[in-house]
Every structure is written in C-alpha cells, then in structure tokens.
C-alpha cells in the first residue's frame, strides 16, 4: 500500500478549528504535500503511534513508521486540552519522533510564546493567516528528515548536521532563491530569534490598490 | 458568444476590485483565490460558506452569553471573538475582522454595552459581505456557463 514517493512530503496538520484545517490542508496540497489533518494533539499522537503512557512497552509505538512517514508536523498553538506547545514537547521528548520537524501556528503575536516554542525545538512559528509563501520555508526542514532516514542517523538534534548535508541539499532543491537564503542562515537559537523577529515584523500592511492589473 | 463572456468577465473584475476598494476584502482574499485551481474550483466558495456558518453560530452563542446583564460570560464571548477574528482574517473579510478588534477591546474591559454594539455590527458586516460574495460567485458561475474563464485579478 501507500509507499510515499521520493518527491512527496507527508505533513500532519493539527488544528481544532474545521475552518483552519481546511485552509492548512489546501495550502499544503497546493505546496505539493500529502496531508493528514487531525483536530487535536492527542489524535496527532495517536496517529504517530505515541500512546499517553509508556511508549516503549507499546508495540504500536513505532507502528506508523513503515507505512506512514511523517516529514513535518504543523500545529495550531491554541487548542483545548493539549496545546500545540504540549504536543511539541511530547514529540521532542519521544526518541522515535523527535526528529520530525514541528511548526507552530498562532493567530496571536506573543513574543514570549514564540520564544518558548522555538526553544522547545519548533523549527518555525507562523502567524496566521498562513500564506502560501510561508510554506516554502518548510521544504528545507522536511528534506532533512528524508536525508536523515536515508543515512540512518540516530534521532538526535538535527542542527549540528546541517553544515555537512547542506551542499547536497542545495543541489537537490529546486531553484528557489528564498530556499537558498534560508539554508545559508546558520541554524542557531539567536538566528531563530531573528527569524522570529522577521515573522513578527513581516509586512502585514494592507495593500494600496493603486495598481490593479488584470489578466483575462 | 465571445462578447457576452468578455462582458461578464469585465463585470466580475470590476465588482471584485470594488469590493477591495470599499474595504470589504483585503489581501488575504487574494491569497485565498490563489489556492483555488481547476482541481478545486469550489474551494473559495466552500471556505467562505464555512466562514459564514461560523459567523452565524458564534454570533448566536455570544448573544446568549451577553443576554443577562448580571451574568455575562465574558470568557465565552472572548473565545467567540477570538475565533471570529481568526477566521475573518484568514478569509480576508476586512470589515468583519476590524469589528472583531474593537469587540475584543470591549470584552477585555468587560464592557457589555460595547460588546452588544460590536455584536450587532459584526452581524451586519458578515451579512453584508455574504450578499456581496454571493453576487460575485453568481457572476463567476455565469462566466463558466457561458464557456469563459474566471479572470485573474491582481491587486497590488
């Protein structure tokens, strides 16, 4: 059954709002990703094969790995029960799944919240509404997991390995200038801060409708 | 046949542009349209429909929470406003979103009167937008039925 093709990334999207799930699903599909959506953190863990209790005793703990390879988890922050932050922690605490990149989304721009998530290991923090352009930032993170699996590296912190893999990843990636500049940014926590600041100060100004062009 | 299509397309274009110019829609609506393609021709209409359903439900529940002056559940109202602000923002419903911003401020200071006013305004704005978008989608349908393509309208 479902063998994931080389070029397709599979993203697990978590959001309690049906509306937001529909949005993120379409955004991801439009970015050529396979998507699975769930409406809660606990369902996300279930999907991954992580149980609430001791995962090492659970024969299902890694059952999703062969059939369903998740290359990225994108989750809303504000959810009832398990927040996105809680989910992030659970994933990063799990030996089997901590290498999966996690991205947090939130409609609220709270710097302390953003810091906390990035410090806990989130790769990116997206302010809602998420745009197509935001999703181009995901590919480098997802590529890392593919390369990791191929080279059978242990599930540890990805960051130190980036320098090594960087050149081969750049060759593989399509010629997107934004992607290349993302790659060149050293992945250190203070630069994550920078990325965070960029996210916060992203130009959200409303367009001036002076130039309106139409294509028919 | 061609001129009918061209006329409809022109109408569609002008109407859409006017919605932006009058502040009903913002850039996020453009983003939404980018997500629609031949494979998903109803995406925008579906999302917008979901949004309006949400508006209706949330307005009703917030109205109930605000009903009795001596017992207002501001937490519930805040939650409703938060959701509404989020979805209106995602859809590009600019006026609705702006009312939500004021609404949140009233809620934060537990101003029931203010909240009631905002609630009324949100109700008005979403219904107004609903009518406008319905007209837009009708134009779209007419174009498709006449064998034409929906124009790409780029707002810079």
TrEMBL record, chain A:
GO CC aspect terms: nucleus
Biased composition (Basic and acidic residues): 148-161, 194-204
PROSITE patterns recorded: RESPONSE_REGULATORY
Region (Disordered): 145-165, 179-204
Chain positions with 4-aspartylphosphate modification: 76
Sorted UniProt keywords: Nucleus, Phosphoprotein, Transcription, Transcription regulation, Two-component regulatory system
Source species, domain of life: Eukaryota
Name assigned to this protein: Response regulatory domain-containing protein
TrEMBL record, chain B:
Domain of life: Eukaryota
GO-annotated biological processes: cytokinin-activated signaling pathway; phosphorelay signal transduction system
Residue positions, PTM Phosphohistidine: 82
Localization, UniProt: Cytoplasm, Cytosol; Nucleus
InterPro entries: AHP1-5/YPD1 (IPR045871), HPT_dom_sf (IPR036641), Sig_transdc_His_kin_Hpt_dom (IPR008207)
Pfam families, per the entry: Hpt
GO molecular function terms listed in the Swiss-Prot or TrEMBL record: histidine phosphotransfer kinase activity; protein histidine kinase binding
Gene Ontology cellular component terms for the protein in this record: cytosol; nucleus
Record domain HPt: where: 40-143
Keyword annotations of the record: Acetylation, Cytokinin signaling pathway, Cytoplasm, Nucleus, Phosphoprotein, Two-component regulatory system
Biological role stated in the UniProt entry: Functions as a two-component phosphorelay mediators between cytokinin sensor histidine kinases and response regulators (B-type ARRs). Plays an important role in propagating cytokinin signal transduction.
Free-text note regarding domains: Histidine-containing phosphotransfer domain (HPt) contains an active histidine that mediates the phosphotransfer.
Full protein name: Histidine-containing phosphotransfer protein
Organism: Brassica carinata (Ethiopian mustard)
């Amino acid at each position: 059954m479902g063998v994931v093709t080389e070029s397709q990334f599979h993203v697990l999207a978590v959001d309690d709002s049906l509306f937001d799930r529909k949005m993120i699903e379409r955004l991801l599909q439009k970015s050529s990703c396979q998507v699975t959506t769930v409406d809660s953190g606990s369902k996300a863990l279930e999907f991954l094969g992580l149980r609430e209790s001791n995962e090492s005793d659970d024969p299902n703990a890694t059952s999703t790995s062969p059939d369903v390879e998740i290359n990225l988890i994108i989750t809303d922050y504000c959810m009832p029960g398990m927040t996105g932050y809680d989910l992030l922690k659970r994933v990063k605490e799990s030996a089997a799944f901590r290498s999966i990149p996690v991205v947090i989304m939130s409609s609220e721009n709270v710097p302390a919240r953003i810091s906390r998530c990035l410090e806990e290991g989130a790769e990116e923090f997206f302010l809602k509404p998420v745009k197509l352009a935001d999703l181009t930032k995901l590919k480098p993170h997802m590529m890392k997991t593919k390369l990791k699996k191929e080279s059978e590296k242990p599930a540890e912190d990805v960051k130190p390995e980036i320098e090594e893999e960087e050149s081969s990843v750049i060759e593989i990636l399509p010629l997107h200038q934004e992607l290349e500049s993302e790659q060149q940014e050293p992945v250190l926590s203070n630069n994550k801060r920078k990325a965070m600041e960029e996210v916060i100060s992203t130009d959200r100004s409303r367009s001036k409708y002076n130039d309106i062009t139409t294509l028919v | 046949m061609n001129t009918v299509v061209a006329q409809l397309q022109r109408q569609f274009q002008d109407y859409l542009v006017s919605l932006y110019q009058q502040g009903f829609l913002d850039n996020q609506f453009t983003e939404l349209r980018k997500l629609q393609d031949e494979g998903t021709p109803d995406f925008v209409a579906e999302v917008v429909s979901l949004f309006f359903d949400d508006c209706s439900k949330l307005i009703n529940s917030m109205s109930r929470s605000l009903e009795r002056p001596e017992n207002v559940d501001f937490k519930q109202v805040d939650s409703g406003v938060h959701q509404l602000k989020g979805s209106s923002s995602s859809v590009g419903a600019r006026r609705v979103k702006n009312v939500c911003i004021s609404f949140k401020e009233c809620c934060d200071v537990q101003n029931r009167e203010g909240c009631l006013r905002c609630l009324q305004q949100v109700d008005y704005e979403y219904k107004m937008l609903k009518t406008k978008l319905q007209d837009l989608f009708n134009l779209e349908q007419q174009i498709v039925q006449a064998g034409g393509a929906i124009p790409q309208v780029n707002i810079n």
